[in-house]
Amino acid sequence: MRITISAIKADIGSIGGHVRPSNALLEAVNASIRTHKGSTLIDAHIGFTGDDVAILMTHTRPVSDPQIHKIAWDAFLQGTEVAKRQGLYGAGQDLLKDAFSGNVHGLGPGVAEFSFDERPNEPFLMFTADKTEPGAYNLPLYLAFADPMYNTGLILSPDVGQGFRFTILDTQFTDGDRTIQLDTPEELYDLAALLRDNGRFVVRSINARSNGEPAVACSTSRLRNIAGKYVGKDDPIMLVRTQKSFPATGEVLAPFGIGHYVAGFMRGSHTGPLMPVCAGTAMSYFDGPPAVSCLAFSIRDGQLTEPVDLFDHPYWDWVRQRVSRKACDMRAQGFSGPAMLPYADLEYGGIKHRMEGLETRFAVSK
Questions:
Q1: How far is Cα 304 from Cα 152, in angstroms, rounded to an integer?
Q2: Which of 29, 61, 156, 211 has most Cβ atoms within 10 angstroms of its Cβ?
Q3: Which residues of the chain are in CATH 3.30.70 domains?
C-alpha cells in the first residue's frame, strides 16, 4: 500500500512564556484533526515538545497535498483561538500569513513528509526539536547515515553499505530552493564541508542508494526569511525510516548522545547543547536547553501503533546530566565569544541598532 506520512509543527501559544502549550490548546488541535480521521486521514497523532505542537498524519494523498496541509492549518487556527482566549504567550506565532494558499510551505509551520510503498514491517521515527535551528540535525544525520563508527550497518549490511544520497538546501538563498545532491561514501568530504555550517546548509532529505527509497525528510523553514524579522526559532521536525535498507533505530539515536552544540537557547541567539528529552517536555533553563524528542511508530495500511518514547530510558538520563553540565559551562560565558551567535546570525535586531549607533562614535587616529 502506498502511504504518505506528513508531520507538520507550529508554535501557536504557550503557558508562561516559551514553555509548553496548554491542555485546552492541544485538545482543540486534536478535535479538529479527529474530524478527518477515517476519511481524508487514515490516522493521526498529536504531541508537543517545548512550545511546539506537532501533527503527525497518515494518508494516501501525495506530498504537499493542499487538502492535507489545509487540515493542519485549520487545526492550528483552532488551537490559536484557544491560545488567545487563555492569554497564552505567542498565540499564532508561527502562522505568519493571514490566509492559506495551497500548502503551508512559506506560511510558517515546519513540514516533513515522504511517500512510500509500505514494507511488511515498517518502523519510523518522528523527531521534534525546540529552541534550535533546522541544521541541528546535520551532525546526527551525517553520523547515522555516513559514519561506520556510529552506523555499523555501513560495513555489515549489503543494502546499507551501498550508501545514501543526501539532498542539502542552502537556506540563505531566498529566491527559490537552491539544493545539491551528494552521494556517500564517494562525496563524504564534500558533505562534511557543507554540513559543518548548520546555519546555512541543512539536510532536506536522504534516500537509500540501494533502492532509491526515502529514508529521511526534514523541515527546513527559516522563519526569519518568511517574516523578515525574528518571530521565534525554527524548531525543526524530522521523519526517519529505520531497519532493513536504512540504519537501525539504535544507530539513528546514537549520535544524539553527544549533546552537540547548536544555535538556539534564549531569544534564539545563543549556543547550547542539544538535549534529548522525553516527549511532552516543557522548556525551562534559559528558555532551553535546545531540546529534541523522538517517538517511534510502526505502521500497517496507514494505521499507527501507539508511540514509544525513545528518549524515556535510563541511558538518556545520564546523557541529560552531561548535557546539563555542557549547557552550564557555555552559559557561564554569558554574551562572550561562542556563547552568543555571530552578528550575522543573531535573531534579535536590537544589538544591530546598538552597533549602528556606536559606529558614528568611533574616531580614527593617524
A1: 29
A2: 29
A3: 1-117
Class level of CATH domain 1-117:
alpha beta
| Cell digits of residue 171 | 537556506
* pLDDT(279) > 70: yes
pTM beyond 0.90: the answer is yes
Q: Does residue 11 have an active-site annotation?
A: yes
| Alpha carbon 170 to its chain's center | 16
Work out the angle at residue 27's Cα, subtended by the Cα atoms of residues 26 and 28, and round it to the nearest 5 degrees: 90
- The secondary structure of 214-256 as a DSSP string is EEEEE----HHHHHSS--S----EEEEE-STTS--HHHHHGGG
pLDDT of 222: 61
Give the position of cell 541529560: 320
Taking Cα atoms as reference points, which of 207, 211, 232 lies closest to residue 222?
232
Give 95-152 as a DSSP string. --SSS--SSSTTTS-EEEEEEEEPPSS-EEEEEEEESB-GGGGHHHHHHHHH-TTT-T
Please provide residue 29's backbone torsions phi and psi, each rounded to the nearest 5 degrees: -65, -45
Angle between helical axes of 66-86 and 23-34 (0-180°, round to 10): 150
Section 273-297 average pLDDT: 97
24: which 3 cell numbers? 485546552
Q: Which of 11, 52, 130, 234 is catalytic?
A: 11
Indicate the range of 69-78, 299-308, 336-345 predicted with least confidence: 336-345
Predicted local confidence at residue 183, as pLDDT: 98
The three cell numbers locating residue 221: 523553514
C-alpha 33/C-alpha 47 separation (Å) is: 12
Check 230, 285, 309, 345 and give the catalytic one.
230
pLDDT at 233 over 70: no
Averaged pLDDT for residues 119-136: 96
Compute and round to an integer the Cα radius of gyration of the chain.
Answer: 20
Q: Which of 9, 131, 233, 326 is catalytic?
A: 233
Interval 124-129 mean pLDDT: 98
Active-site annotation holds for 233? yes
For the chain, what percent of residues have pLDDT higher than 90?
86
